């Protein structure tokens, strides 16, 4: 569940991954709920990864996650198939 409560731990986990410099691949298939705060964290992490540069991919978003991504206009979050 990527709700508001998950935003801070998600942010820290992504910052740690970005700091490692390794490519980041996230699997969104099990997300049952997604809120704007976590979408903002994901978008920010994607931009930060691009500035390093390192790969950042969000694969297989669940229907709830895909719907929120589309609603927020953040289609660039989802890796191209």
Automatic annotation (TrEMBL):
Q: Which Pfam families match?
A: STAS_2 (PF13466)
Q: Which domain of life is it from?
A: Bacteria
Domain STAS: residue ranges: 1-81
Q: Which SUPFAM superfamilies match?
A: SpoIIaa-like
PROSITE patterns, per database record: STAS (PS50801)
Q: Which protein, by its recorded name, is this?
A: STAS domain-containing protein
Origin species, per record, is Sphingomonas zeae
């Amino acid at each position: 569940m990527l709700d508001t409560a998950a935003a801070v731990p998600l942010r820290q986990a992504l910052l740690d991954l970005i700091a490692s410099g390794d490519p980041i691949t996230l699997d969104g298939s099990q997300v049952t709920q997604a809120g704007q705060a976590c979408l903002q964290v994901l978008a920010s992490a994607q931009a930060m990864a691009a500035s390093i540069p390192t790969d950042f991919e969000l694969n297989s978003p669940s229907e709830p996650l895909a719907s929120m991504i589309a609603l927020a206009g953040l289609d660039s979050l989802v890796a191209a198939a």
